[in-house]
Amino acid sequence: MAIETALPLLRGKKVFVAGIANEHSIAFGCAKAFRELGAELAITYLNEKSKAYVAPLAEQLEAPIFLPLDVSQPGQLEAVFEQITQQWGRLDAIVHSIAFAPKDDLQGGLVNCSAEGFATAMDISCHSFIRMARLAAPLMDEGGAMFAMSYHGATEVVPNYNVMGPVKAALESACRYLAYELGPRKIRVHAISPGPLKTRAASGLKDFDLLLNEAVERAPIGELVDIMDVGFTCAFLAMPYARRLTGSTVYVDGGVNIMAWSGDNPVAHRCG
Ligand code: NAD
Questions:
Q1: HEC per residue, the chain
Q2: Cα(138) to centroid of ligand 1, in Å?
Q3: Catalytic annotation on 180?
Q4: pLDDT band at 1 (very low <50, low <70, confident <90, very high)
Q5: Cβ 93 vs Cβ 238: under 8 Å
Q6: What is the mean pLDDT of residues 52-59?
Q7: What number does the ligand 1 atom closest to the CA of 20 have?
Q8: Cα 25 to middle of ligand 1, angstroms
Q9: Residue 161 annotated among the catalytic residues of the structure
């Protein structure tokens, strides 16, 4: 079933999307959905190397703001918000679609994860969203919406997800606390939990293809999700129609999360 969109329900809205690496990125699906519904975009790229891949996408999205952002570099996030403030003076939504863990810490099992690796994963994949929320909130004087990408491994054990499980659990909790603190300002905050998608970040997970196969077998809807499914969910949640929704983790996974385990023995995939 094709999703037909034409109504510019978000015309004039200003949206900052962080985390596009290439055309497969979940962030690209989010940016595209917001743009198709009429929003204007601020887009960032990680570094000079990734700029070559992201620049044509930013052009396709007609993004008037296009800047570097490595959240581990002091001052870069502030510089993005400085530009947004100067150019737009306001903001309606942000999408945080950023995650990182050092390879050895990600692939060696949680029990072997170093303190440094844990801290890095937590800073880039979770605390940077809190920093983003702090900078965005003053620009959302008419209310707004904030989204951070999580995964089902936050609440249940997904073999090979390792350190990212506790990190995503912290991210989902952070969304709830931010929703609580920013609610009086009509700013709504959601964790979005997509089903598995073949992206650059996912390629760092061992046996990711097994997750894809299992997702399609277990999904009540019987299909894998795509990046536009995630994007249109965020776009809907940013609309006034969703104004009483906040703080929840919204699964975009074809229903996989409601299913009891029925696959082969997950202990066989255990590492560490
Ligand atoms: P991706 O590789 O396309 O996106 C990850 C992004 O994180 C990249 O754009 C990368 O540049 C950015 N990033 C990493 N370190 C950064 C830093 N220091 N500063 C700024 N940006 C940085 O992969 P994706 O799958 O689209 O991942 C996006 C989000 O979705 C992540 O939070 C991921 O955990 C989450 N997610 C992915 C899946 C999946 O199956 N692919 C499922 C659920 C959730």
A1: CCCCCCCCCCCCCEEEEECCCCCCCHHHHHHHHHHHCCCEEEEEECCHHHHHHHHHHHHHCCCCEEEECCCCCCCHHHHHHHHHHHHCCCCCEEEECCCCCCHHHHHCCHHHCCHHHHHHHHHHHHHHHHHHHHHHHHHCECEEEEEEECCHHHCCCCCCCCCHHHHHHHHHHHHHHHHHHHHHHCEEEEEEEECCCCCCCHHHCCCHHHHHHHHHHHCCCCCCCCHHHHHHHHHHHHCHHHCCCCCCEEEECCCHHHCCCCCCCHHHHCCC
A2: 26
A3: no
A4: very low
A5: yes
A6: 98
A7: 9
A8: 7
A9: yes
Burial 94-111 (b: 16+ CB within 10 A, else e): bbbbbbbbbeebbbbebe
Q: How far apart are CA 25 and CA 121, in angstroms?
A: 19
Q: Which residues contact 187 (CB under 8 A, 6 or more apart)?
A: 137, 140, 143, 144, 145, 146
Question: Cα-flanking dihedrals φ and ψ of residue 181, to 5°?
Answer: -70, -35
Q: What is the model's pLDDT at position 272?
A: 47
How do residues 207-232 score in pLDDT, each as one tens digit? 999 999 999 999 999 999 999 999 99
Pocket mutation for ligand 1, best pick of 16, 24, 25, 152 (most atoms within 8 Å of C-beta): 25
Six-digit token pair at 82?
């400085």
Ligand 1, atom 13, residue with closest C-alpha: 98
Closest CA to 9 of 33, 43, 45: 33
CA of 43 to the centre of ligand 1 (A): 14
How many CB atoms neighbour CB 42 within 10 A? 25
Hey, what domains does the chain have and what are their CATH numbers? 14-270 (3.40.50.720)
